[in-house]
Amino acid sequence: MDEPALWAASGAMALTGRPDGPPVVTPGRPASAVAAALARIRAVHPDANLPDVRVLGERAAAAGLARRAPTSCGGAFRTTPTYDGVLGLSLPRGSDLALLPALVEGSVDPEHPWPAVAAWAAARTSAEVEARVRLLGLPGQVRSAGEHPAGRAGVLRSPGVSRPVPPRPLVVDLSSLWAGPLCAHLLGRCGADVVKVESRDRPDGARSGPAGFYDLLHAGHRAISVDFGDEAELGVMRDLVARADLVIESSRPRALARLGLDAEALVAAGVSWLSITARGRASDAVGFGDDVAFGAGLHTPEHWPVGDALADPLTGVSAAAAAVELLAGRTSALLDVSMHHVAQEAAAGPGVPHVVERHRDGWLVVTDSGVHPVAAAYCRPATGRAPAAGSSNESFGLR
To answer: Could you tell me which CATH class the domain 155-286+314-341+381-390 is placed in?
Structure first.
């Protein structure tokens, strides 16, 4: 199938565009990239119960979201012009809103913050805006006129040492939200034993999101919660990590160092490590799925967002494909996964000529390959309930 046909089938197209207008075909080939990554996983685990390209729309379906350009489906992301480009900014957290007065160097109405952001950005160059966003650690990306070179691959692999192929890999999941847990979910569907590790004080924020979606990604896993201020409990976590076949995390290296976790040293000892960050382990940039996808070039010509937090499922599936292939081999490795560069790879490539047409109560995409209905976003039913935070603590000797 060509990209518009896959995009239409994924449910993500139904999430792209204005609510009172037609759904929009994305640039690049994100649905094709997801299909290719899933095929790589199936090549190693042909009997695994895996999703299809509809994985792109599952969170939105679970949350009841719909297209609402010019903002994102969830409402936290939107774009606004700079003097010579466009800023895409996500404001999902109270801490992000609290930083806006420092960003615009003035007062901001917390109930209606965007007018102040728009006025500030319009008077500044993209370089000035990007520097200020980076300085404050806000989840924002800038698109300016001209070329946007790829820079690096989405997944970088640094080999470690020889290790046996485990019959059932132990995967320790230190990540949160969507991309990392999706990767862990897919590995679990391939037979891995997944243990989710959370801070007792700050559990995964996705627990407060759609329950069905959280259940989907975490059913069948074990879960422990750790007091990161307690050295004895940290010791239990470090012992677990040292026994793992693969660790998944989405933190900056210095944050993990404070917990006594050294990825390079663990890889040298035979533990594989998968790090998911906004722009790679060498960058301090922060980002969420919508702003990262926008910064990578996955947006409509009007600079509207496409899909729902598109960089998250793109990255989760791509990371899982790399992890499955790694675990099937006999060498440990550090996988440095950059959400931005995964999305940038998916944004590359020429568009496929197409027409979007209204048909009765729905929409169709017409390409040289045929006529393809635009499917609504769909979420697979969970196979069970997600474990409660810390539900496996006793079995690991934790309180």
So the answer is: alpha beta
